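Page header: ASSEMBLY MODEL / two components / 690 residues total.
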Amino acid sequence: MTVSAVAPSPQSTVSDSGYLLEVRDLRTYFKVMDGIVKAVDGVSFAIKPGETLGVVGESGCGKSVTALSIMRLHDTPPTWIPTTKITDMPPDVTAAMGDAGPSQILFRGRDMLTLSNEEVRHLRGNDIAMIFQEPMSSLNPVFTIGDQISEAVVLHKKLSRKAAMERAIESLSAVGINNPERRVKQYPHEMSGGMRQRVMIAMALSCDPQLIIADEPTTALDVTIQAQILELIRKVQDDTGAALMLITHDLGVVAETVQNVVVMYAGRVVESGTVDEVLLSPKHPYTEGLLTSMPSRGMRGQRLNVIKGTVPNPFNMPKGCNFTPRCPYAFGPCREYDPRIEDANPPDVACWLWTPAPGSPVPPRTRTQRPERQPS
Amino acid sequence: MATDPLTGGLAPTNEAATPPSADFEVALESLNQWQLAWRRFKRHRMALVGTVTFGFMIVLAIVGPIIWPYNPLGVRSDLPGSQGFSPAQMFPFGSDGAGRSVWVLVANGARLSILIGLSTMFISVTIGTVVGVIAGYFGGRLDGFLMRLVDLFLSIPFLFVVLVAARFFGGGELLPLIIIFGVLFWPGLARLVRALFLTLREQEFVLAARAVGVGDMRIAFRHILPNAMGPIVVTATLTVAQAILTEAFVSYLNFGLKAQDISWGNALADAQSRMSVGNWWWPFFPGIFIALTVIAINFMGDGLRDALDPRSRE
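Prediction written out in full:
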């Protein structure tokens, strides 16, 4: 396989720096009839081999789009990601991009966005596997479980169909499915949701990927099965040493499963850090809102805190910080200037409460002090 | 905590689930979509009748000309006048004015008529499916071009084109006629397949297949197409009936097969040209065979439609 498409120097240093996946300034814009939707607008994060990263946020904040962008599963058009290779971007999309440089998704130091379709296909399923949200509809109804698991193996590992079927049976028993020899001959409609999600995990495992992207793997399952599936994902990750990117809106899942967390809001990363930092001492008002809107023991009889309003309309983003209309702490600079996590100081939260804003050199908050909530 | 292997519950380490699960093992049989469809098809009585009738026609088409070969010289010479023998005089269907047995004409005609029906179906289903898959899956400019082509085919008067094409390219031969039919029958199916693909390609399992690294062609033809087979099979069935009818009609107008070839349409045309009062059996028997075949196929199509519709789970 050639690597001619990849510019040599910066990427190789990145892989030397010890990251398996490094997303740099990812912008995924959709050109739709009414204009441009900035679904992901400058997201950066990195995952080390074997590490677990949680991506948290409400519906519609760009989590899944980020995952699909990493896998290069969007069609261009209507989806546009700026890269050095793309030359035919429509003028309105280019205008919306502004002066941002090309996005990069470095997997083992090679930019996914500039690889050929052929090269990306070799990585998909083989080195990067994905577990989808909807186990009920993610399996093809007309093929047996065994056919579907062994397809990836035949495709990537060049095994015979028989050997691939053996492997499918192995991975089914690795995900705790009884009687895998019989199960491989069954069709998806003969299985429950929890079993199908196990099958999806077995499929993801079958080629020993280095990175597993799980897009809300437990959302469609009922609560008792959720715990089992999470336990299973954690176990297979331990066994295989794969890195895991876990997308979820469930902070309980995050607390139990991941090491590092990225909090997304309206297509941006607003806060990042280790799971303890983010969950125990949230800095961004959005993270704080997410945490306080979870019911917990000892809250019986109290009113549950909610984050007011909804994610802003993508065609009508507020001026300044996107979170301003919903933020209980919003003050002067929030309505004027857009905080970017790249320029933030401290570096892990995009908020003028923490970073000195233009015209307000002393941020209201430091690590030791937090202001009173403004009456709403 | 109780374990039940059927609820997708717990890891296999738990040995508690013993006797009940053994019963379940026996009860579970894996049926694929075709086996399920066959179950439902069997319940559709008219469809079964149609299948048996069509099966009979196919058998007739294969063995009829062997058992009752057509011999233009081997006719009875003791004709009772220009009407030919009535069915009462000559078993089973009487004869035409030249003394040819109408049954022999019907038995021999079955071969060409059904051959035309099936071949047309194969050609048009192949073209229609490929065009529909490409247009529906890949979309974009190719889709635009192919669908305008379909519009073009559907906007020209079908009859006129069939007749003109049959006259200019047909020359009374079988193969050109089949090709003309095949080329004219595909656009409707192409539209149908495209529409199916437009919904199917947005399904999660397509995304999942792409995420596993499956290529576009394989996704289109191996992953999505089997999910669209139901409507395609139904359309294919109905195309056979339509082609048989069209052949009868074109031959009746003397634009189809040459007069020496015996098909149901030619037999009708022959009967009509020398029709006089009273010799109803000349056109009646070829006509009733056409009608029976077409009705049988339509019943089959109906049954298939119900059996293959994923929403009609029993």
